[in-house]
Design brief:
This protein has 813 residues and is of the alpha+beta class. The protein folds into 3 domains: 206 residues, no CATH class; 178 residues, no CATH class; 196 residues, no CATH class. Helices cover 50% and strands 17% of the residues. It has 23 helices and 22 strands. The strands form 3 sheets. Strands 3-4-9-6-8-7 form a 6-stranded mixed β-barrel. Strand 3 and strand 4 form a beta hairpin. The radius of gyration is 34 Å and the shape is globular.
Length: 813
């Protein structure tokens, strides 16, 4: 009953002070809405997991170099030993992702994302087909070597390509140029691991011949037994890995096992850091909001001192006073939460829209589930208590005698309020400066990447990918011959300015290799330096519009046995041959970790301009060795075409040219190089925008809070100002009287905030692109903005104080 009375009284008070209510509601809505938005992202990235039953029981299993901490996929022989020896999992499954070309008579070929699955994988995930059977039903040997080629289709491809025809089960289609029988269809929710169709892992080319030291291409997972913890599973696999180290010391030395959730596996790098940093940033924004509203309530508390004194004098206990005030603050938080929920919905939809088409996993959905709702409710309640506690405790200590003696004016209670407001303002300023630092670093990184001198003209460069099926092109010689025909055919098209093929487009990625230079020995115990290898066609530099600095381009025979040559970029020449002539010198590129036969020596025949390949975030570009595709013809390559007109207009022509060479081979991933670069920049653009929004909100709230406190100080000291002016104080002295307290708060907040800004820079260091964590230009810019906004907030009310009429001020009560 008493609580209902408190609620009714609080509602009347909030309606009466509607301007304060409106300002506090908007401030809280911003803080609560931003927190709900970012927690939705945290939930999707780091908490929710896979969209299957009991996702917390599904573990990613991999291998790790215990000396360097590097994570690897699994060796197929190691996986088989694990599966036979382990007892912690209901079962272990494995998969290998890859592109699959689907072709049928009467339909154009299409490329889909596919995966090779062990037969038990679907059951371990808890998924059953909606049509037909999976690889374990009826024929338990579907995944044995030499079995009939089988495929399970996803519901999406079943509907889009085959019109949801139920007779597709049992029909033969061609996948990677091989006749394959369709055995079932999986529901649309099952796309793990971002696949549209699945084949038995035993049909993966070259799987049976895999060596124990080949830890790439195959990944593993398992579902824990109901009574087994993740730690117990980790201990068991660690023991099995130790046994394999003893049995196979040459291939398994220092190789251990890892057991982790899929969220930890997928988002263990920069994305995890930036999401958690965003959560910390919105936490700061919420604290700024709470401090701001608490200050507003403290200012109002001086007007309510007489009311509280009367309530205490007629028997109200301190707890009853505190409860009444906390009910008011919680109601304010609820109002802010309602508006904040609408802001959170808008923010989540915005993030979902700007990250479409950026390669995120299919199950990564930014939706507000029960976990987000629970977080939202907790934040609303906690916020109401946090910002309401200080005013409540302050007012509950009201001295009845003092209030009666002062006639309702400020006494020691007003002094306590000023101390509280000073602490809160300093806290707001400190947090705001830290947020400005984070936003400044992220925006500076984005601008640096955006204005980066690429060294080539990208406006008319079109890229598209193709993947040669192993069954049709099983040998390196056959793949190289096909790329020769593609180069010849594209080079004959008069409408294009140049065409070539490459394993990795510029600014995208490259193959990391260890470098060995003929005649040089690496210092004892040290790893050889790491460089980037890119496989290219003969007209690569011509198509990009680059001219070799020295040496020659690749000839038709380069890359064949006895003609192992390479071209290095200027960065490579400067790092490893500074002062010496690299032309004619020999280098060896060793995979990391080593696998396969001993690599051949490569003779350097040319030096190219430096073009960034992998190290986009670093100030210095990476050293690159370019080799002809005949040297290492990979199944997947990217075609790069320089068009004379609009790039999109050439797509159909290029498709037809490739189809003329192989009617079952589709082109996919068609995009301009500008689009590829924009996709590489998206984390800085999106998260930089978010950090900037957080910082701007905090800056505005801090400035408003500083303005409100300074303006209230002018009002509370009106009589004092009148007395001082009547005794001869001039406008400058009155101005300084008001401003000096705000300047002291600003100085303390600036000092603490700068210390926090350096900490923010260190935290974000791994995310920054060519920007120092203590970049003086960024720090100077944010300090300038911060000081300017803060000074404007406190100077304006001080100027009003200088215009006070002494006579009116002396009459002020």
């Amino acid at each position: 009953m008493n609580l209902l009375q408190d609620i009714r009284f609080a509602v009347r008070l909030l309606v009466k002070d509607r301007w304060l209510t409106a300002v506090a509601t908007v401030a809280l809505a911003l803080g609560i809405g931003m927190n709900a938005t970012v927690f939705t992202l945290v939930n999707a990235f780091l908490i929710r997991g896979l969209p299957f039953d009991d996702p917390d029981r599904i573990m990613y299993v991999g291998e790790r170099d215990t000396m360097t901490g590097r994570n690897f996929m699994v060796s197929w022989p190691d996986f088989q030993d694990w599966r036979e020896s382990q007892k912690s999992f209901i079962g272990l499954g494995a998969w290998s992702a890859g592109a699959m070309n689907v072709s049928d008579e009467g339909r154009p070929p299409e490329r889909y994302s596919g995966a090779y699955f062990t037969a038990n994988a679907f059951r371990l995930l808890g998924e059953r087909p909606i049509l037909g059977r999976d690889f374990l039903d009826v024929l338990p040997g579907d995944d044995r070597p030499g079995a009939e080629a089988l495929v399970m289709l996803g519901e999406g491809i079943w509907k889009s390509r085959y019109g949801a025809d139920p007779s597709i089960v049992g029909r033969t289609i061609r996948i990677n140029d091989a006749a394959t029988t369709v055995v079932g269809v999986m529901a649309d929710r099952m796309k793990f691991p971002d696949a549209d169709l699945w084949m038995p892992l035993s049909q993966m080319p070259g799987l049976a011949a895999r060596k124990r030291n080949e830890r790439f291409g195959v990944q593993a997972f398992g579902r824990l037994e109901p009574t087994v913890s993740r730690r117990q599973a980790q201990s068991e696999l660690t023991a099995i890995a130790a046994r394999l180290q003893r049995e196979f010391p040459e291939t398994n030395k220092n190789i251990g096992a890892t057991v982790m959730t899929f969220s930890e596996r997928l988002y263990a790098g920069p994305i995890r850091l930036v999401v958690l940093a965003s959560m910390g940033a919105v936490g700061f924004v919420l604290l700024v909001c709470c401090a701001n509203v608490a200050n507003l309530l403290l200012v109002r508390s001086t007007r309510r001192a007489r009311e509280i004194a009367i309530r205490v004098s007629i028997g109200a206990t301190r707890w009853r006073i505190v409860r009444q005030l906390l009910v008011e603050s919680v109601l304010l938080a609820v109002l802010g939460g309602v508006l904040g929920w609408l802001l959170a919905l808008s923010g989540t939809r915005w993030f979902d829209a700007v990250t479409q088409g950026l390669g995120r996993p299919y199950y990564l959905e930014f939706t507000m589930d029960g976990r987000v709702l629970a977080f939202f409710a907790t934040v609303c309640l906690a916020t109401g208590i946090v910002f309401g506690l200080a005013p409540a405790l302050h007012l509950s200590k009201t001295d009845i005698n003092e209030v009666i003696r002062e006639g309702g004016r400020c006494g020691s209670g007003g002094l306590r309020a000023r101390r509280w407001t000073s602490v809160l303002i300093v806290g707001e300023l400190t947090l705001t400066l830290m947020l400005l630092a984070g936003a400044g670093f992220m925006i500076r990184s984005f601008l640096t990447l955006y204005r980066l001198d690429l060294g080539i003209e990208t406006a008319h460069l079109l890229t598209m990918n193709l993947t040669l099926p192993d069954r049709k092109y099983p040998t390196p010689e056959e793949r190289a011959a096909f790329y020769d025909r593609v180069d010849e055919r594209l080079g004959a098209i008069g409408a294009i300015g140049g065409a070539t093929s490459t394993s990795h487009v510029p600014f995208g990625s490259g193959l990391a290799m260890r470098l060995v230079i003929d005649g040089r020995q690496a210092p004892g115990g040290e790893q050889p330096p790491q460089i980037t290898r890119v496989t290219i066609g003969t007209r690569y530099f011509e198509t990009l519009g680059l001219t070799l600095r020295r040496g020659r381009a690749f000839a038709a025979a380069d890359g064949t046995p006895g003609h192992e040559v390479g071209i290095v970029n200027q960065r490579f020449a400067s790092m490893y041959f500074n002062g010496d002539d690299p032309l004619g010198r020999r280098v060896k590129l060793v995979p990391d970790p080593p696998n396969g036969p001993e690599p051949a020596w490569i003779t350097i025949v040319g030096i190219s301009p430096t073009l960034r390949q992998r190290n986009v975030r670093e100030p210095d570009p990476d050293p690159v060795v370019y080799v002809p595709y005949r040297f290492a013809p990979a199944p997947s390559m990217t075609l790069v075409i320089r068009t004379q007109g609009e790039p999109a207009g050439m797509t159909s022509t290029l498709r037809e040219e490739v189809r003329a060479l192989d009617p079952d081979l589709p082109l996919f991933g068609i995009a301009t190089l500008d689009q590829t670069l924009a996709q590489a920049r998206w984390p800085y653009r999106v998260f930089g925008t978010m950090f900037s929004a957080f910082a701007i909100v905090a800056l505005v709230l801090s400035a408003v809070g500083l303005y409100a406190i300074t303006a209230y100080s002018v009002t509370a000291r009106t009589q004092e100002i009148g007395v001082r002016m009547a005794l001869g104080a001039d406008a400058r002295q009155v101005w300084w009287l008001i401003v000096r307290r705000a300047l002291a708060q600003l100085a303390v907040g600036l000092t603490l905030g700068m210390a926090g800004a350096f900490g923010v820079g260190r935290l974000l260091r791994s995310l920054l692109a060519q920007t120092s964590a203590t970049d003086p230009l960024t720090l100077a810019a944010i300090v300038t903005v911060f000081v300017a906004a803060s000074l404007a907030a406190c100077v304006w009310p001080a100027r009003r104080a200088t215009a006070v009429d002494p006579i009116s001020a002396l009459r002020h009560e």
